[in-house]
Structures are given as structure tokens and as C-alpha cells.
Design goal:
Layout lengths: L23 H6 L6 E3 L11 E3 L8 E17 L2 E14 L4 E6 L11 E5 L12 H9 L8 H8 L6 H16 L3 E4 L2 H13 L10 E4 L2 E5 L3 E9 L4 E2 L11 E3 L8 E2 L4 E5 L7 E11 L6 E4 L6 E6 L2 E12 L5 E8 L4 E8 L5 E5 L2 E5 L4 E7 L4 E8 L5 E7 L9 E3 L2 E3 L34 E8 L2 E8 L14
Parallel strand pairs: 2-25, 9-18
Antiparallel strand pairs: 1-15, 3-4, 3-6, 3-7, 4-5, 5-17, 6-16, 8-10, 10-14, 11-13, 12-14, 15-18, 16-17, 19-20, 20-23, 21-22, 24-25, 24-29, 26-27, 28-29
Length: 486
């Protein structure tokens, strides 16, 4: 029997060149190595694009594999009832590790092999949801974090609980807060658990990211230390590797100017750019092996259900920061993040140069004065895809792409003019495994994938910037009848 997930981050091995799916034995084999690695620093030639995705500020990246442990639930709305699977998903973490998640968007489909990234609540449908903190409480006090099913049954007043019933009851309780859904578990014991969790839940704060770099973009002049970029992580100890591109002379150093060999939460990193270096950009990536905190949200750019973390094995997490430098003129630093409160994408722009930096987006010109910083919010419609590149002096280019997904029913499957629950599990990815010694034991399932919507492309060209805006069709495609048995 596997033990329950542990929420406390632990610093173990940095996974290097490892497959996405890892067995418990292989995780243990790398557990002797500590922490966080600063990956290769590269200085692109002029005109090279440094890509970003605005909702990704660091953490775990993973692929959805299957709905592993589940029962059945009935959703009632508009006088109709829909029977759907309810339970625990599993994801394979890039470069090693496994996550278990529940969904927080009952009306959206899951996509086969969808890629997910750890995302702050403010960039998801949990933003502004008064029940978000109660969802985290449920995750902390139910399966799989609580793996003693007999004890959990006693607390819920149930006769007994199987793993499938515990997963179904937990998912049902979550949907009552995430979607305000009228939903009940089919299994009477699972329904008792759902009722217990719903009435017992208390507000709990959002957990911190497993790993981020703040800010994700900095700028300055050649010959100076550019930064700082601050490490934020739950890992207790970290290690830093030297830049791969040592020939450029650009180094990553601490506040004392010495090359960084060790770092931890709160450590400040700087790009040390030699004097006389041609105008350019660089990117650094940090990686760690740790457990991701329970309650972290995960979103996909393929319009697959938003997920919330129920547990994590030792997993590889990462974050990226960029630097731009020049001898004179405008020296911009740009980053982006989804802002569900304003229903758009925030472009955080600063200018460390001695001349204004001007760019255009959606036909609107924005100017960042010398030494100034500003946040520009680009309004978007729900489910609208976007892909834009901002250009600047010295070959500066920064690309941002993603999909705005801020509402639980934003792209519900439309059947007969009414939104239908679409919590269909994706079929298992080839070769999926449980992947870690602290994972709860899981079973298999059958499912049918739901197809993604059709993107419509609108191109807007402005001086100094290129903006590609892709708007998704409202219909996500036909869904299998939710009443089918698994």
C-alpha cells in the first residue's frame, strides 16, 4: 500500500535527462542529490525571440495521463440529470515525477495528453471564488492526502470507503465550491463523505508556488550586474550550476559579485554582463526536485479542464528569467501574466534605458519612459487564444502566447443550446505509471476524449510589435453522452 501524499516540500534529487514517467525505485535512486540547478545561460543573437507563456511563472509542467481512481456522480441542472465520472486524475511531470489532481471545472472537457503548467489562482477560474480556500481544505483533509480510509469513513459517518468512493466523494465536494454545482455522488458512502467535507471545509490560503523567479524579466547596461532575480521555492536547500555559455563571459552571480554555487529561498541572482558586450539577451532556468504543495492549480493551453493538486511525488519543477542589455537607448524588460480579475493579460514593462520604449498592441500605442515601469492590461474574451510578439531596439523580441480561461462555464459543451457537464476522463497515455513511492494506490478506467474548439486567427500589426490573436469557436465539439457507464 502506498502512503498518502505529503504536502511538506522535501529537497531531494534533481532529475537529469530522466523520462517523464518514473517508478518509485528510480525516484529513490536519485534521492541522494540535493536541489536546484541553474541551467545553461544563453545569449541569443540580435533578432532572436525569447519565448514566454504569460500564465507560467514557474513550477511544475506535466502531461495528463488518465482518470485513475473514480466513481460516478449525477449533476442536476435545468431540470435534467447527467451522470458523469468523478475522481482523481494523474499527471506525469516533465523530467520526473507524478501528480494527482481533481478538476475544478465540471463543464469543460479533458483533452488527451494535454500539457499542464502550475498556475497561480489569479490566472484561473478560482480567482474571485469565495470557496477556493475551502477547496484547499478539502484536499488537505481527504483522499489521497488522508489515506486511512477507515478513519476517513468514521469522520464522514460512512459505513466504509473504497478508494473509488473516497475519490468520488472528494471530487463532488470540490465541484460544489468550484462550480456551485448541484451534484451528488451515486455511491451513498461517497455522498456521505461529500456532505461531510462540504460542511466541514474552512477557508485556507492559497499555497505558494513550488518554484518561481521574481521578477521573470530584468534589464540593464552591459558592464553592470543586472537584476536581482529572487528565488522563491519550498525546497530547503538548492544548488546552482555555472552557465553553459561561458564563452560569452556572462555569469550568474550573487549580490557580492561572486559566481553562485549554492542558493535557497530568498537568494538573489544577478546577470553579470562584461563591459563592451554587444546588445543582447540571456535566459536562465532554475530547476529543483521537490513536492508541489497541495492546492496549487494547473491549467492547459489546449482548453482542458483546470485541475487542482491533491498530491505530488518528488517532482522536477523549474522557472525561467530573462535579461536584456544595451549600451544606450531604450532597454526594455517584459513579462506577462493572465489576470482573470480584469479578464485579460497583464504586460509588465520596465525600461532601464535613457530613451523611451514604445510598442503597439491591438492598435494602441504604449510608451514606457526612461527609467519607468508600467503594467498594460490587454483585454480578451473568455476562451480567446492569443499569440503576440513585441519587438524593440537591438533585435529585442518577446513572444507571449496562451488562452484566456477564467470561467468554469466559458467553453461548455453545447448540446441543444444548454451547457452539459463534460467531465469525461482522457484515455490513459501509453506507458502511464503511478510514478512515486508516496503516491496513493490507484486503479484504471475507460474514457472518451473530447475534441478542442476551432481557432479563428486575427492578425493585428502595429509599429514595433506584432500581435496574433486567435479566438476560439465557442463550441468544443460533440461530447459522448454523460450517462454512459465506465
Amino acid at each position: 500500500m502506498f502512503s498518502a501524499f505529503s504536502e511538506r516540500p522535501a529537497v531531494k534529487a534533481l532529475a537529469k535527462s530522466s523520462p517523464c514517467r518514473r517508478s518509485a525505485g528510480r525516484l529513490a535512486a536519485v534521492a541522494a542529490v540535493s536541489g536546484l540547478a541553474l541551467a545553461g545561460l544563453t545569449v541569443p543573437a540580435a533578432g532572436t525571440t525569447v519565448a514566454d507563456t504569460p500564465q507560467y511563472r514557474g513550477g511544475a509542467s506535466a502531461t495528463l495521463t488518465d482518470l485513475r481512481t473514480h466513481g460516478q456522480a449525477v449533476v442536476r441542472e435545468d431540470g435534467a440529470s447527467h451522470r458523469i465520472p468523478a475522481g482523481l486524475f494523474e499527471m506525469s511531470v516533465d523530467n520526473g515525477g507524478t501528480l494527482q489532481t481533481y478538476c475544478v471545472d465540471v463543464h469543460n472537457p479533458t483533452q488527451k495528453d494535454a500539457k499542464y503548467r502550475e498556475t497561480p489562482w489569479r490566472g484561473t477560474s478560482l480567482n474571485g471564488n469565495a470557496g477556493a480556500g475551502r477547496i484547499r481544505w478539502i484536499l488537505q483533509h481527504s483522499y489521497p492526502r488522508v489515506n486511512d480510509l477507515a478513519q476517513l469513513a468514521r469522520k464522514a459517518g460512512a459505513k466504509s470507503l473504497t478508494a473509488e468512493a473516497a475519490a468520488a466523494g472528494t471530487q463532488v465536494a470540490i465541484w460544489r465550491y468550484s462550480d456551485k454545482a448541484d451534484v451528488r455522488a451515486v455511491d451513498p458512502q461517497a455522498e456521505k463523505l461529500a456532505d461531510y467535507l462540504q460542511r466541514s471545509a474552512r477557508n485556507t490560503p492559497e499555497p505558494k508556488a513550488s518554484l518561481t523567479l521574481e521578477p521573470p524579466a530584468v534589464a540593464g547596461r552591459a558592464g553592470e550586474r543586472i537584476g536581482p532575480v529572487t528565488v522563491r521555492t519550498g525546497a530547503e536547500g538548492v544548488s546552482v550550476t555555472p552557465p553553459a555559455d561561458s564563452a560569452s563571459g556572462v555569469r550568474v552571480v550573487g549580490k557580492d559579485g561572486k559566481p553562485v554555487e549554492a542558493a535557497r529561498d530568498g537568494s538573489r541572482l544577478f546577470f553579470d554582463v562584461p563591459k563592451g558586450s554587444p546588445d543582447g539577451m540571456a535566459a536562465l532556468e532554475v530547476q529543483a526536485s521537490t513536492t508541489v504543495p497541495v492546492g496549487r492549480a494547473f491549467t492547459s493551453e489546449t482548453r482542458s479542464q483546470t485541475q487542482i493538486l491533491a498530491g505530488s511525488s518528488e517532482s522536477t519543477v523549474s522557472a525561467v528569467a530573462t535579461a536584456h542589455w544595451a549600451q544606450k537607448g531604450a532597454i526594455p524588460a517584459l513579462s506577462a501574466e493572465k489576470n482573470c480579475a480584469e479578464r485579460g493579460v497583464d504586460i509588465a514593462a520596465s525600461n532601464k534605458g535613457d530613451a523611451p520604449f514604445t510598442f503597439r498592441l491591438m492598435g494602441v500605442e504604449h510608451t514606457i519612459g526612461a527609467g519607468a515601469k508600467r503594467t498594460v492590461t490587454i483585454p480578451l474574451q473568455e476562451d480567446q487564444a492569443y499569440d503576440f510578439t513585441i519587438t524593440g531596439p537591438g533585435g529585442f523580441q518577446k513572444r507571449f502566447a496562451g488562452v484566456l480561461d477564467c470561467r468554469t462555464e466559458g467553453s461548455a459543451v453545447d448540446v441543444g443550446g444548454k451547457a452539459q457537464p463534460a467531465s469525461e476522463p482522457s484515455p490513459a497515455s501509453a506507458g502511464g505509471t503511478s510514478g512515486g513511492g508516496d503516491l496513493a494506490d490507484t486503479g484504471g478506467s475507460n474514457a472518451t476524449p473530447l475534441i478542442a474548439g476551432i481557432a479563428v486567427v486575427m492578425v493585428v500589426v502595429g509599429g514595433g510589435a506584432v500581435f496574433f490573436l486567435r479566438r476560439k469557436n465557442d463550441t468544443a465539439g460533440p461530447a459522448r453522452a454523460a450517462s454512459s457507464e465506465d
